[in-house]
Amino acid sequence: MANRGSRQRSLLSADGVERATAIGVAILKGMNAAQAVAMVVIALSASRRPWLEILAVTTYGLAGLALVVGSLRAGRLRRGLVLVDVATGISVVLLAPLFQPSPSGQLWTEWPMAVTFLVGAEAGAVLSTTGTVLTMAGLMTAASSWLLYDPPGSTRKDILTDLVPYFGFTLGSLLFVGYLRRLAALADSRARTIRMLEEERTRRVLHTPYRLLNNLADMLRAEAARGAEDDPGHRERRARLAEAVASVDEIEAIVRGTEPASGNLAAELLRLREQFTDLPLVMNIDDINADLPPQAAYRIREAVRSALQNVRLYAHATEVVIYASLDATSWVVSVHDDGVGFEPSARRGVGLGEVIVNALEEIGARVEVNSSVGAGTLVELSGDHRWALN
After folding, report:
1. With b meaning 16 or more CB within 10 Å and e meaning fewer, what string describes 47-77?
2. Which residues pair with 331 in a beta bridge?
3. Looking at residue 314, what DSSP letter applies?
C-alpha cells in the first residue's frame, strides 16, 4: 500500500506530469509513425518522386524516434528534440507538393498533414506561448502553401479543413498541459507545506524528551563530581554515574534517529575507560585504521561493556585486560580478568547469554568464553567483515 501511495503522489507532482506527458507523446508518436508508413505504402505508386517521399517519411520517423528515446530517458519532453521535430515536420509539409501525384484530378496524399498535428501538440506542451504560436503559424503556412500548386478541388477543401486541427491540437495542448503543470505545482507546494508542518510538529514533540535527557545527563555529571576523593566508594560511584551518562547519551541518539556509536572500534572501546574507572583496566588496543559498520561497532562495544559489568560485580579481579585488533579481513576483541572465575557448566546470566553471546551471533560474530574457578575469565569476540545487519 505504501508503494502504491508513493506512485500516486509522484503522478500528482511536477515530475509526474512531465513523465506522463513524455509517455503520452511516445505512444502517440508510435501510432503516428505507423499511420505515416501505411499511407506512404498505399500512395507510393502514384507519387511523382517516390524517392523524395521515402526520404521525407524516413527523416520524419528518425526525428520522432530521437524525440521518443531522448524524452523517455530524461523523463520529460526534451525542448531541443521537440524543436528538431517541429522543424522536420514543417519541412515535410513544405516538400509534400513535390512528390504528390501529377495527373490532374487525382487526390493528393495527406499523410504529411495527418502526422504533423502531433508536432503542434508537442510544441504546445514544451515551448512558450510565443514559440507555440510561431509553430502553429509555421505549420498552417506550410499546409496553406499547397494551394500554390493548384491541387485538385477535393484536396483544396481538405487543406482548408485541416487548418482547424492544427489550431486545436497546438493551443489545446498549450492550455491543457499548462493547466496540469499548475495543478502539479500546487500539489508540490502543498506537500512541502505538510512536510514542514510535520517536521515542526516532530521537533516540538521531541523537544521535551531532548531537554529531559540533557537535564538528566547534567544532573548525573554534577552528582559524579560531588563527594570526597578519599571516600572508598567514591571511585566506583563515579564510574557508575559515568556509565549512566553514557547510557543517557545513547538513548538521546536513538530518539534523534542517529547511530548510538561511530564506526571507529578503537574509539568506542576507549570510551569505556571512563565508565569503569573503578576497575584495574589495561587497554591493549592495536592501531585500528579501518572502520566497522556503526551497528556492528555498537554491538561489540556493548558486549565488552556487559563483560566489564560482570567483572565489576563478580570477579574481584586485580587486573582486567581489553585487547582489540582489526585488519582487512577479520577482527578480534577480548576481555580477560584474573578474578575468581566460574564453573564452565554454570548457567549463563542475562548479560553473558543475551547481551554478549546472542547479540554478537545475530550479526555473524563468534563468542568464546573460557573460565574456571580461581583462574579468571576470558571472553573473546571475533569475526570477519561479513555482517548480518538489518
Report:
1. beeeeebeebbeebbebbebbbebbbeeebb
2. 326, 383
3. I
pLDDT in tens, 283-327: 998 767 668 888 888 889 889 988 998 898 888 899 999 999 988
Q: Which residue has the cell 538528566?
A: 216
77's CB contacts (< 8 A; 6+ apart) are 18, 21, 22, 25, 67, 71, 122, 125, 126
Distance CA 267, CA 297 (A): 10
**Residue 78, all three cell numbers:** 526534451
Look at residue 2 and tell me whether its pLDDT is greater than 50.
Answer: no
Q: Which cell is 231 given?
A: 571516600
Please give the DSSP secondary-structure letter assigned to residue 288.
Answer: -
Give Cα separations from 323 to 277, 286, 334 (angstroms). 17, 8, 5
pTM above 0.70, yes or no: no
The separation between CA 375 and the C-alpha centre of its own chain, rounded to angstroms, equals 55
* pLDDT tens column, 201-232: 666 555 555 555 555 556 655 665 565 455 55
Give residue for cell 566508594.
233
pLDDT of residue 236: 64
Q: What are phi and psi of 370, to 5 degrees?
A: -125, 125
Residue with cell 556493548: 302
> Which burial class, exposed, middle or buried, applies to 329 when counting CB atoms under 10 A from its CB (0-12, 13-18, 19+)?
exposed
Burial level of 390, CB count in 10 A (0-12/13-18/19+)?
Answer: exposed
* DSSP-derived 3-state class of residue 333: strand
Residue pair 29/61 in contact (Cβ under 8 Å)? The answer is no
Residues whose CB is less than 8 angstroms from the CB of residue 178 and which lie 6 or more positions away in sequence, other chains included: none
Residues 6+ apart with CB under 8 A from 101: 43, 46, 47, 48, 107, 108, 109
